[in-house]
Every structure is written in C-alpha cells, then in structure tokens.
Design a protein that fits this description.
The protein has 380 residues and is an alpha+beta fold. Helix content is 34%, strand content 29%. It is globular and about 70 Å long.
C-alpha cells in the first residue's frame, strides 16, 4: 500500500476523522454520506490534510494509520498510510471498547482533539451542572438509580406525586432509544417509548410500572426526571437541538437552533419533523419579528452558559449539540448535551450556506488548535 515518504509535503494540520468500520467500508465502495462529503468539500477551502479511519486501521507498532481520503484528481476514495493526526475528530461510537482503546493509544501531548470527551453520562453532567447557580433554573429535578430495579414503590409515589408525568432515561444512551415516559392517567399509568415506532402500554398500578421499567432497562443505571409541561402541537412534543461550535478564531457560535416536532404522542422528538428556528416560530407559531429576535437572543445566552460550563467541567469542545425546550409559560429547559451530534435535524432543516459554514468551522477550529499548539511550543 502506498505510504507518504515525506510527511513535510502534507498540508498542516493533519486531521484524522475516527469513524466506524462500517463507514470505512462504505467509503471504499465509493459510497459516501452527506456529512463526509460536506467535510471533504470544506477541506478544499481549509486546505488541511484530511483522512478517515476506524480502529482497525491503526498500525500500533509504528504509530501510523491506514487512512481513507478523497482523491480530487481521480474523483474517488483511496487508501494510504498516513502519520498519526495532529488533530483528532472523533466520530466513532463512544461506547465501543475498540474505539476508546484507539483514542487512548493515539492520544498524546502532540495530538489535539476537537472534543475533550466523546460522550456524556447524563447523571454525571447533571451533578456537575446543578452546582452552577446560574444554570439551576433551567435544570429539571433529576434523581439517580444505579439500577432500574432499585426504584421502589415509595420512590415512584414520591416522584410522580407532584408531577403527572415523569421521564426515565438510561444514564448512557443516544437517539432516544432508552427513554421512557410514564404518565398518570385516570385508570392507571401510560408507559410509552419510541424505537422505530411508538409503543404505549397501560399499567394498572405502580407495581406494574416498576415491572415494566425493570424489563425495559434491565440492569442499566437510570435517571428519573420530572416531566415539564412543554410546548406541544396537537400532542406532538417540541424541542430544539442547538448546534454550537468554536470557529477558526476559537470564538463560540450558536450556528443553528433547529426545532424538532415529534410524532404524535411520542415521548421524544428525535424521529419527527424539523424546522429552522425562524420558520417555526414565525410561520407555525405566528411570533412577531421582534418576539423571534428576543427569544433567539435569550436562547443563545443560555446555550453559551451551558457550553462554557461544560468546558469548565470536561475541557475544551469544538462543537456540541445541546437539547433545550420551552414550556407553555415560555420558560427555557435544558434536556441534554451531545458530544457527537448526528446533526440530522440541522441537515434536514437548514440552507446549504449555513450547513457548509458549520463543516468549515470544524476544520478551521482544527487549524486554530494547531496554531495554538505551535505558539505554546515556541514559548517553551
């Protein structure tokens, strides 16, 4: 396999995108996805050395990587042996042992990462953020259980006493697969979750609810959150997945705030429709121009507070997806943060210019990290 004999000829920084072995196979078959095409297009402007790899591509004994890159002249994806990247952009599964082993093996003072961590524990994030008095008004009351079966009748009774609706979430989980809504109804409780399709089960009493939770979560650790009376459209849950990034100057930007409208009666919005922030509030909710501008400013300020608080706790981030929502009184609520946002709502709702700028930001931020690293070395 071709290898780079003179690494000094490579454009700097070298940016390596860690992804799944399935994605690498697809690239080798010349099947790309939108996000990788957009990143490759952004690289034409950024002029970094960009390649993609999975954990299987790491050659541990000599610290090199079999990278997959797009050859602009031949208009095809090719493979070549590259040095370890200057900047790592981790888009691999955060729960995979092999991916974490790969990141650990590559990590050194020489290599910088776009995001300090690959994923979050919902409970760990809550514990850290709730200490911040500025953030407390935006955080729903949350309780932790090391095992779903540890939730007792007394716990459940106390939690749901004041709220007719609660959410139970796996501490580690993504895409809403391990999220349950329990709602008090006239003749018992409605237990609902969404995984490819909405599933709703009627439980006659607390004992049946606890059995359903145990069956659904198994031995997983969970958090139980108070259900907020969030904004709805015809029984469709509404929230927002804000995309925040640091740009080529290291400055924080709220790039977009797509609004997500879930499927009817679904406890999550992940698999619903997406709208731009402006279109949703102006056209669908009939907000005035002034109201939209005012709300956007309020959200931007709150989102930046959360982003900076997360950086203070975990280290620098080049990008985060932060889920927030409004209740029926217009109050802002934090839902969760994502170190590897899939950007589905963003890509679905927003214009090409905004989308392309966001992918440009990733590589420009990589260049910023590289410049800062060189400055630090020169001052030593």
């Amino acid at each position: 396999m071709e290898s780079i004999s003179d690494t000094s000829t490579l454009s700097k920084p070298i940016v390596g995108v860690l992804t799944s072995s399935r994605n690498i196979r697809r690239l080798q078959q010349q099947k790309t996805n939108d996000k990788y095409s957009l990143l490759t297009k952004a690289n034409k402007v950024a002029n970094t050395t960009l390649y993609f790899f999975c954990y299987k591509d790491i050659i541990y004994h000599n610290k090199t990587i079999v990278g997959t890159y797009y050859d602009e002249e031949m208009k095809k994806w090719k493979r070549m042996i590259f040095p370890v990247p200057d900047i790592l952009y981790n888009r691999g599964s955060r729960s995979s042992y092999n991916v974490m082993k790969a990141v650990t093996s590559l990590h050194s003072d020489e290599m910088k990462v776009i995001n300090s961590v690959a994923g979050f524990s919902k409970w760990d994030v809550y514990k850290r953020l709730v200490k911040n008095k500025k953030l407390q008004p935006f955080l729903p009351l949350t309780k932790f259980f090391s095992n779903a079966s540890d939730i007792s009748k007394e716990d459940f009774k106390k939690i749901i006493k004041e709220k007719r609706r609660i959410y139970v979430k796996a501490v580690q989980g993504s895409r809403g697969k391990k999220v349950v809504r329990v709602e008090k109804i006239r003749n018992g409780y409605c237990f609902s979750h969404f995984n490819n399709q909405l599933t709703s089960v009627h439980a006659k009493n607390k004992k049946e609810v606890l059995t359903l939770l145990k069956d659904f979560f198994g031995s997983r650790s969970v958090i139980v959150q108070e259900g907020i009376d969030l904004l709805e459209l015809d029984e469709q849950f509404i929230d927002m997945r804000a995309e925040l990034q640091r740009n080529g100057q290291g400055e924080l930007e709220v790039v977009a705030i797509p609004v997500r409208v879930g499927q009817k009666s679904s406890p999550i919005s992940t698999h619903g429709d997406s709208f731009t922030f402006e279109d949703f509030y102006k056209i669908i909710l009939s907000y005035s121009e002034e109201e939209v501008v005012e709300l956007r400013k309020k959200l931007d300020d709150v989102l930046k507070l959360f982003y900076k608080a997360l950086e203070k706790e975990y280290g620098p981030f080049g990008e985060l997806g932060i889920d927030i929502a409004l209740d029926k009184d217009g109050n802002i609520w934090y839902i969760e943060c994502n170190a590897q946002s899939a950007k589905k709502s963003f890509l679905s709702a927003y214009d090409n210019e905004t989308i392309e700028r966001s992918f440009q930001n990733i590589l420009e931020y990589a260049k910023y990290l590289y410049r800062e690293k060189k400055k630090k070395i020169q001052t030593l």
